[in-house]
Amino acid sequence: MFLITCPWCGERDQTEFSCHGEAHIARPQHPQQLSDEQWGDYVFFRSNTKGVHYERWVHTHGCRRWFNAARNTVTDHIYGTYKPSEPAPEIYPEAEINAGNTK
Predict the structure, then answer these.
(1) Segments forming the whole domain that contains residue 79
(2) Please, are residues 19 and 54 in contact by the beta-carbon 8 Å criterion?
(3) Inside any domain, residue 95
(4) Is the torsion defined by CA of 102, 79, 1, 76 positive or negative?
(5) Residue 34 falls within a domain, yes or no?
(6) pTM of the model as a whole
(7) Which phi and psi (to 5°) does residue 31 adopt?
(8) pLDDT at res. 4
(9) DSSP state of 29
(10) Average pLDDT score over the chain
């Protein structure tokens, strides 16, 4: 288990939260004008990144508010959380990887 910082409630146990997939996916402006293939791409296809991934989370057993998190999908390290109205933070995972390298 790990801790997640809710932007409204502070640090809590991960069991209070639910992840709902990739963040920052814009809904099509005119979905009725999309082909079935285009609509299927929007609904089903995501980047599924190995490494830093921006995700949508909800504090299910707390304030019930939505927020975004920058999480490493390999290590589960959360670089930060932020409100949906805020811009995504710039993440430099190379610094974390190289921090232990003494060569």
Answers:
(1) 3-26+41-99
(2) no
(3) yes
(4) negative
(5) no
(6) 0.79
(7) -60, -25
(8) 96
(9) S
(10) 88
Q: Please report whether residue 31 resides in a domain.
A: no
Tell me, what CATH number does 77's domain have?
A: 3.30.2270.10
**How far apart, in Å, are the Cα atoms of 40 and each of 21, 27, 66, 70, 85?**
16, 12, 25, 26, 27
Q: Is 83 a member of any domain?
A: yes
Distances from the Cα of 46 to the Cαs of 9, 35, 43, 64, in angstroms? 29, 18, 9, 24
- Could you read off the pLDDT of 3-47 as tens digits, one per residue? 999 999 999 999 999 999 999 998 999 999 999 999 999 999 988
Residue 48's alpha-carbon distances to 32, 35, 86, in angstroms, are 27, 23, 22
- How many angstroms separate the Cα of 62 from the Cα of each of 53, 83, 85, 86, 102? 23, 15, 20, 21, 42
